[in-house]
Amino acid sequence: GAVVSQHPSWVICKSGTSVKIECRSLDFQATTMFWYRQFPKQSLMLMATSNEGSKATYEQGVEKDKFLINHASLTLSTLTVTSAHPEDSSFYICSARDPRGTNQETQYFGPGTRLLVL
Amino acid sequence: KQEVTQIPAALSVPEGENLVLNCSFTDSAIYNLQWFRQDPGKGLTSLLLIQSSQREQTSGRLNASLDKSSGRSTLYIAASQPGDSATYLCAGMDTGRRALTFGSGTRLQVQP
Fold this sequence. Notes:
The complex is a heterodimer. Chain A contains no helices and 11 strands. In chain A, strands 2, 4, 5, 6, 9, 10 and 11 form a 7-stranded mixed β-sheet that branches. Chain A has a 4-stranded antiparallel β-sheet with strand order 1-3-8-7, with no helix packed on it. Chain A has strands spanning about 5, 10-15, 20-25, 30-40, 45-50, 55-60, 65-75, 75-80, 90-95, 110, 115. In chain B, a hairpin with a 2-residue loop joins strand 6 and strand 7 (about 60-65). In chain B, the strands form 2 sheets. In chain B, strands 2, 4, 5, 9, 10 and 11 form a 6-stranded mixed β-sheet that branches. A 5-stranded antiparallel β-sheet of chain B has the order 1-3-8-7-6, with no helix packed on it. By secondary structure, chain B is mainly beta. Classes of the chains: A mainly beta, B mainly beta.
């Protein structure tokens, strides 16, 4: 089956630094990727939808200048948390889909990246 | 805006019991309804996907139903096992962006 990887799986950083998280589709081309955030004991909340070659669409309440998303290729999307603060500490999960594939509506999820901002 | 609610929030049962997890959604215009499993600190494992035109899907000991008119879905787990212990999430996919709106999950503990 399709595999999505995320890197890093864990990151600890100081307040004020920027952190980049990568999401890769390993064996399929993902024209659309989604970024979710999950706070402790809460469910996943969609942050933004990323389409290859175009600007990401952010959900209401998500600051686009703070969470920079780049989807420059069909297999890679990156989420950069700029000037991270402790309240940004969370579990970030990406998913990818290939609308041209046989399982057009299936989203394949990455294993997640746990961010801790000190 | 779609809202997804899951009841109960937590459930503890002895091994071998059959159980039902409930999910309700406010917008019936969903593309599909999906159930996932999440183990502590881990990503998501897809369990079942029900298309909007379908009523149910089965995989092994799992059966999921969908009633769009009432905005409800149920996940039935037969003969529960300790390995089933996890958080179960339901999510509705919208017809536009095909993004998922997740419920808050049901934390299941199956006692050996």
